[in-house]
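Researcher: Here's the sequence for the chain we discussed earlier.
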Amino acid sequence: MKTKIIKSSLTVILLCLIMTSCKKKVDKDYRPEFIGNWTGWGVYPIEYSLVIDSNSNAIFDYNNANGEEHFIRGKARANDKHFKIGRFASIKIVDYPHKIDTATTNILDPFSLKKCNWEMTLDHPLFYGKGGTCYKAVY
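Model: Thanks. This is the structure I predict for it:
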C-alpha cells in the first residue's frame, strides 16, 4: 500500500516538474524578441494580433472563418519550439522571431504604420495546418 502511494506521488511530482520547467515566461530578460505588437494573417481569411508586454502578459486576438472575434489571454511562455498563452493555448514556432530587411519587404504595421522589421511564423489549429506569418515594427 505504501509503495503504491509513494509511486503515485513521485509520478505526480515528476509530471509537475516536466510541465513547469519546459517553458519560461517571456520578459525583457528571457525571449525579449517576442515582446511587442505582432500582426498576421492565416491561410483561411483569418486576421490575428498577438500583443505581449514586458511583464509576460499576452493577448491573442483573432477572427475566425465566420468573422467572429475571439481573445485568448494569459501569461506568455516560450521555449525553442512552442509558444504558450495561459494554460491551454499552445502554438508551435515554425520560424523563430528574427529581423528582416525593410528594403525587400513592404509590410506595414497597422498600429504604427511603419514598415515591419521583425517576422516569425507560427503554426496553430486556427491556421488550418499551415503556418501563419506575423510581423512587428520595432525601431
